[in-house]
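Predict the 3D structure for this chain.
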Amino acid sequence: MENTQGLAASAPETRSNRMVDLLLADRHSLPLSIALHLVPGVLIVAVYLALAQPLVRALDLPSFLGWAIALTVVLFPLQLGLLWLGRRRTGRYSLRGVLGYLDKPVPRGRLVAMVAGLIVWFVAVSSALTALDAVVFEAFFTWLPFDDVGASATTYLDGNSRTVMIIVLAASIPFTGFSLPLIEEYYFRGFLMPRLEHLGAWAPVLSTVLFSLYHLWSPWVFLSRVIFFFPGPWFVWKKRDLRLSIGMHVGTTLLLSTFGTLALILGLI
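Done. Predicted structure below.
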């Protein structure tokens, strides 16, 4: 009887160990990698439609806040999952042993210059491609069941008072401007992309394509996002330094969200 109970108790632990070994393997199969890239996006849309969208409707708040809530609900547990994997590997809650490209081989001065160039590329190219986004949206995605959906980034704030928009944007800066894109970089570039190394130079290409597909809440930006985002993953893969894409991604979102909020406060937009 005791042996039977012991075997039953060890079964979940065995499955857990197998899952950890699969996730922390040096190489992910293509189907596994695709699933690990896209499932968070599916969960974000599900949380938005089931929870966040009804909540912000009831409170008469901008739908932008609903997306911030959905992203937070999904991505923060994802970060905790990475730390849990770190504990299983190293015995303590750490990203060491879980993420790749952490050895910081790029000298600080060069890193700053490269990140600045990447931010300029991100802002300039994404702005230049907004007309393409509008064409794709009008042709294929007007049917999406999201509140205030539109090709412009400001549609998620339209129809609200200036005061409400300022409060929502300012309150969201620590999340949509900093912590959420940081978690995305830890997960997509730090955790998933190193496990595509067997693809060689195709690893950053696939990482960029799958990351762009993960944004199921803005599929009309897919083509543009592949173009303006690709240099970040490419340089991370080339230089073996995760700080490059973190600097580009987090730097851009923090810059745009902060200056957008200030522009509203000063009445410039």
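The chain has a mean pLDDT of 92.
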